[in-house]
Design brief:
Elements (H helix, E strand, L loop, with lengths): L1 H5 L14 H16 L11 H5 L5 E3 L2 E5 L3 E2 L16 E3 L1 H5 L3 E5 L2 E4 L21 E4 L7 E4 L1 H8 L6 E6 L2 E2 L7 E4 L5 E3 L2 E3 L9 E2 L20 H4 L5 H25 L1
Parallel strand pairs: 1-4, 2-5, 3-6, 9-11, 10-12
Antiparallel strand pairs: 6-8, 7-8, 7-9, 11-14, 12-13
């Protein structure tokens, strides 16, 4: 972006009887005086007002900006309307090229700007690396891009029939049943543990199924009051029966002994 700002051609309109070097010099001097009154581009530590002069919400001259949350948009659009929102995030070009200016996005909401696929630093630039980036109900009226925790909050609040467009990242959790997932990445993503391929379900997308419910029925305990000998059959009534059988056996044995003595 910086090169486009500093390498523009200007046109001067002036009234003079004869165009001389002195007249041209005077005209250029007037132009430079007028330009000096305009917004000055600052570098390094800046106020929000100074940042707006770059037509960027976050502008890094040197160092690394870690964007972890918040909402970002530009009010002062870039002069070229086709690039009006292309520089919500931007680095000073020379320092970006030599690796001394960087932006890492792991969270936040971005208005009309996809931090995972933009032209701020060239076609297909990705500030988000592997962070999750989604859109909800992809429409012109709702052209917001959600990253990281902001994406997870939007997903968890989605209702049955609403669409979530996944543009970056690989893992979605806690997705409500009935929500439609559109996999706009180039690879496989995971939705509530299920593997979903690119363009899964075609234009209709992948509808998140309701979780499977498994019901386990266990026998209920008999709570009917029992008598003392019923509470534990192995030591109650059965003990009486066992004792009677034992006595019968002893009697029979005694009878056998008596018979032998005869």
């Amino acid at each position: 972006m910086q090169e486009e700002v500093t390498q523009k051609t200007i046109a001067l309109s002036m009234k003079t009887g004869k165009l001389t070097a002195q007249a041209l010099q005077a005209a250029l001097k007037k132009y430079l005086q007028h330009r000096a009154k305009g917004p000055k581009l600052h570098h390094g530590k800046q106020s929000l007002k100074q940042l707006k002069a770059h037509s960027a919400a976050v502008y890094v001259f040197a160092g690394t900006a870690n964007v972890e949350g918040g909402t970002y948009s530009v009010q002062q659009k870039y002069p070229d309307s086709a690039k009006g929102d292309e520089f919500v995030l931007n680095c000073y070009d020379a320092n970006r090229a030599n690796g001394t200016a960087r932006i890492n996005v792991t969270g936040g909401t971005f208005k009309n700007f996809n931090p995972a696929d933009n032209k701020a630093e060239g076609e297909g630039n990705n500030f988000a690396d592997n962070s999750l980036v989604v859109q909800k109900n992809n429409t012109v009226q709702n052209n917001d891009y959600y990253v990281g925790n902001a994406a997870n909050e939007v997903i968890a609040a989605a209702s049955k029939g609403e669409e979530i467009f996944v543009l970056n990242g690989t893992t979605l959790t806690n997705v409500p049943a009935g929500v439609i997932i559109q996999n706009g990445t180039d690879g496989e993503i995971t939705v509530n543990g299920e593997k979903i391929g690119p363009n899964e379900g075609g234009d209709s997308g992948y509808v998140v199924p309701a979780p499977t419910t498994i019901v386990i029925i266990t026998p209920s305990e008999d709570t009917t009051p029992k008598t003392e000998d019923q509470k534990n059959p192995s030591t109650g009534a059965n003990d009486v029966v066992a004792a009677a059988v034992a006595l019968m056996a002893v009697s029979a044995l005694g009878a056998a002994v008596l018979t032998r003595k005869k």
